[in-house]
Amino acid sequence: MKILYGVQGTGNGHMTRARVMAKALAEAGIATDYLVSGRPLDQLFDMQPFGDFFWRQGLTFAVSAGSINLWQTLKQASLRQLWRDIRSLDLSAYDLVITDFEPVTAWAAKLQGVPSLALSHQASFRYDVPKRGYNLAARILMSGFAPASEHIGLHWHHFDQTILPPIIDIEHRSLPALKNKVVVYLPFEALTKIETMLLSQPNTNFYCYHPAISSAKLQQHIQWLPLSKQSFANDLADAEGVICNSGFELPSEALFLGKKLLVKPLVGQFEQESNAATLAKLQLAQVMDTLSASSLNEFLATPAKMPLSYPCVAAALAGWLAQQRSEPLEKVAERLWAKVSI
């Protein structure tokens, strides 16, 4: 069996999850090629797990000051190029296409009649899970952006649905937390607004990673840091807490490592608004709707969290694929959730 794996490059969550899957697929002996879209080629980093990957422009959402900018999204979208990329992608060498919310591989598979599998957090919204702002536009986006013939959704809880726990690197282990060390990753927020919030707490050491930072610099109690997979993982391991947008992958890692969590959803992004509401409902995180000194102060005063024991979902999925998906997905889900205690 040979797989083409499409990865949405917007943000880092999809890429992080795909790196974990790439290792598991390789260990299972499954030949896999990768296609990444949604981020400029020169802005991709730590791409070694994907070998000689393919790149396409794809589609991404423009964000301004912590909110989805629909006008800018439409303005920067090249639908003609997207259509050319979809039509020109030859899938004759592949038995299966996996798409993590990546539109080029998904639509090419649909047009060429190649079996496809959506493997993403977005796929969980096809099921009866908590949703906020799930209007007609959101439903069209979820069903039409990266269609597939099968779907595997990932979430923090099963909600009595056939969905799986998060795909994370379970080899990452938490170290004894350094008192008052907090990791900050708010890539869609303005640096000036992040700075104002963090300066309000001079007794906390913040390690703030942001795509607008090109080299490390120290500002009082704030370490401003460029994006780096290894450096970020090292800082996350011994941090007391994490402040981030309410995506899926980083909160999942923080919960697995037992880090207290403060999330800020992107305005107008129903997935992030739904995630924030879910985390609050499950009492897994605190939520702030705007970057707020008072929310930060309240967060810092909260006690540490116990780690969540998520299993190695990537290895289970790779084994399931290697066995030609012969086991019902419901059985796979039951076995994995039996190892989780929330």
UniProtKB/TrEMBL annotation:
Q: Which GO terms describe its molecular function?
A: transferase activity
Q: Which SUPFAM superfamilies match?
A: UDP-Glycosyltransferase/glycogen phosphorylase
Gene3D superfamilies reported for this sequence? Glycogen Phosphorylase B
Lineage top rank: taxon? Bacteria
Signal peptide residues are none
Q: Which keywords describe this protein according to UniProt? A: Transferase
Cite the Pfam families for this sequence: Glyco_trans_1_3
Q: Does the keyword Transferase apply?
A: yes
Q: Does the keyword Transferase apply?
A: yes
Xref: InterPro entries: MJ1255-like
Supply the NCBIfam families for this chain.
MJ1255
Identification of the protein by name: Glycosyltransferase
